[in-house]
Specification:
heterodimer, A: alpha+beta, 4-stranded antiparallel β-sheet, about 50% helix, disordered C terminus, B: 4-stranded antiparallel β-sheet, 5 helices
Chain lengths: ~160, ~150
């Protein structure tokens, strides 16, 4: 039987290995079972604060358009439908179906019950230290479809001030 | 969602997190868990196709990860090898470290040795990983069918 050889350089392929979603899900399940749900949030927040430091800086400097560009890049690269309604003080993000969840369901990877924390906790951590907050308005556990809202602190406090006058 | 293109730094941070919580043993425990619960596809391919299953498994993963590598399958000799000229995962971590964004887990590459050895050795294969150049994002693995000797 002849020897088989495959030789590849990095430029021969696009970097997109979707099975990594399954590995992360497996890790979150492990963390939750071993240390509890707060460990999952703690780990994700810590990762987000460090890894997304440049995005956090951009969010502070340029505001919500920086977050919108990041989300479009991430979701569109994985083939997801994303809609973003952006105003000065608020941004509503709707995801038709989470591409990670879609991939995991198709390939029979177990989806962590806390997978939504990769949205909620991660976005909240990215917002820390900025004038913005993030709220996960709804999330479908089966498909990962979600609606999230980024809003400026002053939206809420401004309304309160209006009411106080 | 954390993009699958951002998984590697998340993975490395997880190893750091686990080590802080429970020391090196906690990291090893997780790697063993992942090997037992996440690598069923490799296990099934090798069960069905023997050494060729290794080729089938890494053909897909290394191409999707855009690795720079040479892979050889010599079924007559009972040997499968990967020579990684540039590992995209370790390469990414080194770049992020240089940019000051994260400090990679000190034994990041060790997970490959633990995960794959734990699948292949019980199936009758010798697994050898040379990680001596992993700080340059280079490594090699050799899988030999121990029944061939």
């Amino acid at each position: 039987m002849p020897k088989q050889v495959m030789d590849r350089s990095a430029s021969d392929n696009e970097y997109l290995h979707r099975d990594f979603h399954g590995a992360l899900s497996s890790a979150l399940i492990y963390l939750e079972e071993r240390f509890g749900p707060d460990a999952v949030r703690d780990y994700l927040a810590r990762f987000a604060r460090r890894f997304y430091a440049p995005l956090r800086h951009e969010l502070q400097q340029r505001g919500l358009p920086a977050m919108a560009e990041h989300l479009r890049r991430v979701y569109e690269r994985e083939g997801a439908e994303i809609s973003i309604d952006l105003s000065n003080d608020e941004m509503i993000v709707r995801i038709e179906a989470c591409p990670a969840v879609t991939h995991m369901r198709q390939h029979e990877y177990e989806v962590s019950p806390l997978w939504y924390e990769t949205v909620r906790t991660v976005h909240q951590a990215v917002c820390e230290g900025s004038p913005f907050t993030f709220e996960l308005v709804n999330y479908d556990l089966e498909t990962g479809a979600s609606t999230g809202r980024f809003s400026h602190h002053r939206s809420a406090s401004g309304e309160e001030e209006e009411e106080l006058r | 969602m954390i993009s699958c293109t951002e998984f590697i730094p998340a993975y490395s941070e997880l190893f750091c997190y686990l080590e802080e919580r429970g020391g090196r043993d906690e990291v090893l425990r997780f790697w063993e868990h992942l090997s037992d619960h996440f690598l069923d596809n490799l296990r099934e391919l090798v069960t069905q196709h023997g050494l060729r299953g290794c080729w089938m498994y890494w053909e897909r993963t290394l191409n999707e990860e855009a690795a720079d590598f040479t892979m050889e399958l010599d079924e007559a000799a009972g040997e499968f090898t990967i020579r990684m000229r540039h590992c995209p995962s370790k390469g990414m971590l080194l770049e992020l470290q240089q940019a000051g964004r994260i400090e990679p887990y000190h034994d990041y590459c060790g997970h490959c040795d633990v995960l794959y050895r734990r699948v292949l050795e019980p199936m009758g294969y010798d697994f050898a990983a040379d990680l001596t150049e992993c700080e340059r994002a280079r490594c090699s693995i050799v899988v030999r069918d121990s029944r061939e000797r």
